[in-house]
Amino acid sequence: MNLDEILNYRRAVRAYDKEKPIDTEKVKHCLELATLAPNSSNMQLWEFYHITQPELLAEVSRDCLGQKAASTAPQIVVFVVRRDWYRKHAQFVLEFERENIRRNSPKERQAKRIKDRELYYGTLMPFVYARFFGILGLFRKLLANIISIFRPMMLEVSENDMRVVAHKSCALAAQTFMIAMANEGYDTCPLEGLDSRRLKRALNLPHGAEINMVIPCGIRNGNKGIWGERCRVPFDEVYRKI
What we know:
Elements: H1 3-9, H2 24-34, E1 46-51, H3 54-63, H4 68-71, E2 75-82, H5 86-104, H6 107-129, H7 135-147, H8 159-183, E3 187-188, H9 196-202, E4 209-218, H10 235-238
Antiparallel strand pairs: 1-2, 2-4, 3-4
């Protein structure tokens, strides 16, 4: 399929054919493709739980409020936000960028570019993602508003703002995964109706992890898993050419 066909094929499928298993390795490959999704500052604060064990599938289904999309799915992927990894990932990207610049940048520009990356990933990213009961976020917000008086400045830097940033990035990975699955002829359904506390316990997630969404995977059971025609607001109502 070309991209138009893939996007038109992809639907939120809510019932799967239990007689048609899907290839675990293909799902894993689609998750590898999901890591290519654009994300804020390349921090990649996500984690993917690919669930194939019947007992855990049943438990996750219960935690998803018994929705049919989860209860009939042969495999489920849980997308998890890991803001608590910000220091580790900032350091990882910084180390990569140092070598990346040495390999690919003109020698006369390398020192400045490395210094810029060290400032960004060594200082700025740890600062904007740090949390302390909302206090650091309030300080960042105040500082950003003062700076914005003199020049354009990103203002969404509170702790809750950075939580939104991390979830948006994870959602981009989830969307990339669903498109990749459609390309394989597999179906998915993004779920947000779930008991996050129970699901975190089932997956043994630490306190700092957050559920972004749960995506059941399988092959649609005829027309049973699709609720009629696709509904979209008229394009002219949301498109603005300026």
